[in-house]
Amino acid sequence: MARIMGIDYGTKKIGIATTDPLQIICSPLTTVPTPEIFDFLAKYIAEEDVEGIVVGESLNLDGTPSQIAHFVVGFVRKLKKLYPNLTIATQDERFTSVDARKIILQSGAKKKKRRDKSLVDKVSASLILQRYMDRNRGFSI
Question: Which domains does the chain have, with CATH numbers?
């Protein structure tokens, strides 16, 4: 098996998570400035066996596209063009940032760490990826 990557897209930075090679565990990986994402992905995919990328779909509470949804659509389009052999999917990302903050708080992280937006972004990416995997295994959250 190969890894699946999760992406929490932002206009300034992107949170990234990945599974282990057996696709059992999702873990936060890093946060990358948005302009550097394609360089990062090229290097990572060259070094690791990756079979797919899941991008958080930016929606409002009522299910309509959010303000940055068009950026996400363009990003997904470019991923599909650059990596035609990978599965590129989207996953509803509503509440992942809220849930990520709760997880970080429950982990006992100090106040300074809890304010680290990069940490929230990569934990959010992990939640996006986990929800995608749960949905595709027949489980539900």
Answer: 3-136 (3.30.420.140)
